Amino acid sequence: MTTLVEPPVKEAPVEKPPRRRPSRGAGKTMRAGWLTYAIMVVAVLVSAFPFYWTIVAASRSNADLAQVPPSLLPGPNLMANFEAVMEEADIGLALLNSLIVSGSITVGTVLCCTLAGFAFAKLRFRGRGALLALTVGTMMIPPQLGVIPLFMVIAKLEWVNQLQSVILPGLVSAFGVFFMRQFLVQTLPDELIEAARVDGASSARIFWSIVVPIARPGMAVLGLLTFMAAWNDFFWPIVALSSQNPTVQVALRQLGGGYVQDQSVIMAGTLLGTLPVLLVFGLLGRQIVGGIMQGAVKG
Amino acid sequence: MSIVAPEEPPATTAVAGAVRRPPRAPAVRRFAKSAGPYAYIAPFFTLFAAFGLFPLVYTAFVSLYRVELQTPGQMEWRGFGNYAALFTDEFFWLSLRNTFTIGVLSTVPQLVMALGLAHLLNYKLRGRTFFRTAMLLPYATSVAAATLVFAQLFGRDFGLINYVLRLVGFGPVDWQTGTVASQIAVSTIVIWRWTGYNALIYLAGMQSIPTELYEAAEMDGASRWRQFLHVTLPGLRPTIVFTAVVSTIGATQLFGEPLLFEGSVSGGISHQYQTLGLYMYEQGWGFFHLGRAAAIAWVMFLLIVVLVGANALVARRRLRKEAGR
């Protein structure tokens, strides 16, 4: 994990010293004034406030929330609201299901995409260009447009309400293939594969002992982005699953659907459903920022 | 496996000049043949064909049939009947219009603010990792969570936003029933979630603009504002087109925000903020008409193709204009 890709950000300070007048000039050499900091702080507050408010609302009673002026500090009802939401929306099961679904999708996607990305980056075969074009071309088409046939298929397989109906379609990531291809084109030298080949390594061996170790930083970033996307995916899970076997997003949809009137209970559910992904973000936020900025430059 | 013999001893491949050898990596090519590169792409393409490509194509087929949710196995030929029914439904046109207005209301401020924030983030900044990470925080939340929180904040009687508005002297706004107000509220959720993400994309683009361009502009006496206008913006053009395309696609299929804002599939009492995505869900899973829903999906697909095409066209024309100058 410590070998994660350094975001391009890091390069900026390295090339800075030779610049003569750090106080003037544009872009990388321009120093920020107090106004910049002020705007930044406001932006951060706007970004963070809804999270704070979730905590406040989740720890109060419904009556507190209907007060004018509203209370802006956390209250004592957090645990009671957690218990209520566990009962009313089965958030416990939802968290477990989301963990299973997002975990499987992450592992499967990273594996499939690394395999395919390696083939597209380093192997020559008939139809390579066309297949890559097909992959990249459909990258922009939202999967939401294919939900109706997909639903008919899982209805036929009697997979409705079962986790595999969400996991299997979630494994398809054209972006991931493209991302891993770009990563391996840049980091994996042809000579290394050649040398291993000469030493008589089998293709499986080459993949596991040479390609995977080199691809690992890219795989980690792709894994992070995939996990967050899978955890937060909304449309397909609410179609394929129901409140009997929900993921977190399905449970939240049920909470917001008017069955539960108690606002503080709804906020408690929202807090529980958001905590895991916030935890990931808190621990690995820097890597996620780097991954997004890198994907942007390459894409 | 052991048929391939290298023409040269492996040691020479390490020589610096070997990298430039014209018949690049013949061993790799032969290895590829023997190992079957198709084995590497097979897992992805099997899933891709089954769960990515097939549903997309088959949607067009389904849209020509009557298919009901309770009996997805029975299909009855309808020709273009689903489309005809669609085009005579006033709520289809309403949701099309809502999708467009909410799309503009959410995309334009979002991208403009992202551009401004990226410009500031590009300064030499203390604690910039913190600022960047904090601004990406909304991106980490799900649509569902963000919408539930904002629905609360936008509450008519006890919402915090109306409370603040009342403090500064504006009457309480009915964020649910008013057409414009509800669309602004829904757009706000989109803006909140995606501005930081787009700012980081712009920042990445800004950092790939060579510093020499700024130095040259400065030597010509260009002010900071002119530098932004004549160096930063042209350098960012591909990035801006990219974010515009991605945001357009996102806006076209907007679904979770309008669904959970009040929790109804109709997008407000008088459908005032129902989007195409929500309309599709209402037809398919509210009224059980899967065939009709497929027709809506296909209309959305065509809409995306047209909008992305228009985006590309505008970008290319501007580029040509620039080159002609």
From TrEMBL, chain A:
Family annotation (Gene3D superfamilies): MetI-like
Pfam families according to UniProt: BPD_transp_1
InterPro entries, per database record: MetI-like, MetI-like_sf
Protein location: Cell membrane
Membrane-topology annotation of the record: Multi-pass membrane protein
Compositionally biased residues, Basic and acidic residues: 8-17
Segments crossing the lipid bilayer: 34-55, 91-118, 130-154, 166-185, 206-231, 265-284
Main location group: membrane
Region (Disordered) location: 1-27
Domain of life: Bacteria
UniProtKB keywords: Cell membrane, Membrane, Transmembrane, Transmembrane helix, Transport
Domain ABC transmembrane type-1, chain residue ranges per copy: 95-284
Family listed: Belongs to the binding-protein-dependent transport system permease family.
Protein name: Carbohydrate ABC transporter permease
Source organism of the structure: Streptomyces lichenis
